[in-house]
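We read letters as residues; the fold follows as tokens. A sample entry reads:
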Amino acid sequence: MRTKIFLAFIIVIFSALLSNFIFEYLIIKDFDSYTESVKEDQYRWVMASIEGNYSDSGWDKEMLSESIHWGMMLGLDIKVLDAGGKEILSAHESMASLSDTMNQRMEELFHIHKTEGEFTENVIIVKGRKVGTVLVRPFQKELLKAKETTFKKRAQYFLYMSLLIVGVGLILMASLFSRYLSKPITNLKTAAERIARGDFDVRINPRSTDEVGMLSDSFNSMAGSLKKEEELRKHLMSNVAHELRTPLTIMKTQIEAVTDGVVSTEEGIENIRSENERLIRLVEGIEDITSAEASFLAKAEETAINLNEFLSGLIREMQPAFKEKGLKIELIRGDDLFVVSDVGKLEKIIRNLLSNALKFMESGGVWIDYGVTEEEVFVDIRDSGKGIPEDKLPLIFNRYYRLEKTGRGGLGLGLAIVKELVTVLGGRIEVSSAVGSGTTFRVLIPLKPA
């Protein structure tokens, strides 16, 4: 890309060079056309003045001399002939009638005794008949020629210098801009190579908000997702291996004990059945986390819902499980609240929190409340369980973390999944608890009114 950008600037430079030469050619051509047109105008003026010196009585030599003087001041060597071709008056003869000072001034302007080219004949016709001929050719005008040459050289010098300055400037700009514009792409390429080698910690610092900056942000998001996926994979494999090892070892031990007659067949089968149920719960937990992780990266499908109806439906579904343990589950509010959110993710969040409360409660119940703050929608789930020690609160959202001495099965993934899903929705989760007084979870998601 850097080479392409540099070549693009080089093309611009050559285009500027070509346009410069064209501009130079046009300027010189226009200047020559201008000088020629001025000469033609001067020639016409002199001819008109000379023609005006003829009358029916013939040529007025005194007036003709003045016209020739004027023509000489314009740099023209003039001879006037009569109808028969005889010379009436010439520029050199007119010079004799001038003062020495005038002659000196004329010599300063022109080389009066040096002319250029052949005479141009111009017939003078008055009233339909030829009355004379005017012969005209230019004197050598060294000073004027020097000025014209100086003007052309200075114009060329100015154009060449401007081209040089612009050319050098464009080359420097081409080098700098090619580096500047290609550097973000080079950084992305280098970062992508590091990702390919398994370095998921690489990040790019976006230096702009244009398309390249947006691409850098997208790359960083991708790298973060890949890193999270890799960490999840490692954690999952490690914990699954650990969780599988224990029940399988116990089952193997029980089978050997039954075979050796150390324990009775009934007792051994019961122990094996218990560990088999533990394996089933383990597999179910793996399925839950796999499903949850897939939803983390899935695009949100937001729809408008009535939060009252949504929570009431979940309560109806889970009511039998709570009744079976002699527990209550109630919705405190009853008014409608319409919001926009991803229903699937929100359902998993609330269902996991309710299942967690059901698992760790022996009496009392769960009370659900909801409402709106200035910028967020909240859902409170308060239970009457044993509570969580204060020093354990920062740990409960960690994957595979389980409170000690609970005697409960599972992988310790429920609250971790909840936190991940809340983050995906752009919200947050808060928890407050006291041992012996129960726990309250508050889920907050951005307010998006229907």
